[in-house]
Amino acid sequence: VLEPGPNPAISVVVPVYRNIETLQELFRRLARVFERRTLSFQVIFVDDCSPDGSFDSLTSMAADDPRVVVVRLRANVGQHAAVLQGILVADGTRVVIMDADLQDQPESIPELMAPTGYGAVFAGRRGRYESRARLLTSQLFKRLLGRLAGVPADAGMFVLITREMVDRLLAMPRHNPYVVAMIGCSGLPVTSIPIERDVRPHGRSAYSVRARARSAWRGVRWTIAWRTGISRRMERADAMEPQVSSVIGGRFNGTGATR
Ligand SMILES: Nc1nc2c(ncn2[C@@H]2O[C@H](COP(=O)(O)OP(=O)(O)O)[C@@H](O)[C@H]2O)c(=O)[nH]1
Ligand SMILES: [Mg+2]
Questions:
Q1: Rounded to the nearest whole angstrom, what is the distance from the C-alpha of residue 201 to the centroid of ligand 1?
Q2: Among 52, 99, 139, 245, which is best to mutate for testing ligand 1, by the most ligand atoms less than 8 A from CB?
Q3: What's the CA-to-centroid distance between 24 and ligand 2, angstroms?
Q4: Residue of 72, 84, 179, 207 to test ligand 1 pocket, by largest number of atoms within 8 Å of CB
Q5: How far is Cα 225 from Cα 231, in angstroms, rounded to an integer?
Q6: Which conformational region is residue 106 in: left (phi greater than 0), alpha (psi within -120 to 50 degrees), or beta?
Q7: pTM score, two decimals?
Q8: Ligand 1 atom with minimal separation from the 130 CA
Q9: Ligand 1 pocket by Cβ (under 6 Å)
Q10: Beta carbons within 8 Å of 21's beta carbon, 6+ residues apart
Q11: Alpha helices of 37-78 — where are they, by DSSP H?
Q12: pLDDT tens, N- to C-terminus, the chain (259 residues)
């Protein structure tokens, strides 16, 4: 086991909601990828009040391995707000955001690390990873959001970002956030490279048709609010509620206390 340095080279932020079947394998595969390249890393799992026992599973993983950090949220806040809470805790020089269900493959991360000069490198979604209807509707939405927010049309929530991008994201309005749009509006250069996305190995998507539509709308709304300056006024009126209830593990910045 590699001893972590003062700051890990990479923090991986993973939102968790009904993912108990894949958490252990996800961590194992991430560890293999980074150990092979002797990169120090931490994996920050953000438990968004997952009802399936994911939190207990994560707690025992954290007890076994100091590179596991568990952020527990007070209430279910949704994927994007959960990711931002994870980023808040991340100590890494660079941060990878990815799904917990193994549709995003840990083995693709080194490819994301290759391009230089970008604030964000997205895994451009490739493959038949979901039904035709879902693929088609999500492609249409992604093209629209891509135009509005200035991200590649194949961008999703598997992305590598720099520390500078982290700082920009955390300075942006976090009311009803949409991380892909926020990255596009950051002012830093972004790109995508084609990465095969897998089909889901266990369970089913947490996003119903309605939830997908609502999420898409939030993406568009956040972007418009940003572009028009409305969101900046909103944020001042509405200070962020504390969302984290506890942080377990995380040796990089002392005790792992909430910051
Ligand atoms: N924090 C949080 N994460 C969620 C929620 N719903 C889904 N996720 C996470 O978002 C990622 C993608 O979810 P998934 O259900 O696979 O959606 P799909 O791949 O877009 O069909 C997974 O890592 C989930 O754990 C939620 O309500 N809250
Ligand atoms: Mg999925």
A1: 14
A2: 99
A3: 16
A4: 207
A5: 5
A6: alpha
A7: 0.93
A8: 21
A9: 15-17, 19, 48, 76, 78-79, 82, 99-101, 103, 205-207
A10: 201, 202, 203
A11: 54-64
A12: 455 457 899 999 999 999 999 999 999 999 999 999 999 999 999 999 999 999 999 999 999 999 999 999 999 999 999 999 999 999 999 999 999 999 999 999 999 999 999 999 999 999 999 999 999 999 999 999 999 999 999 999 999 999 999 999 999 988 889 999 999 999 999 999 999 999 998 899 999 999 999 999 999 999 999 999 887 766 655 555 668 989 998 755 443 333 3
| CA dist 245 → 48, 81, 86 (Å) | 11, 14, 12
Count how many residues are written for the chain: 259
Checking DSSP bridges between strand 41-47 and strand 190-196, what pairing results, if any?
A: unpaired
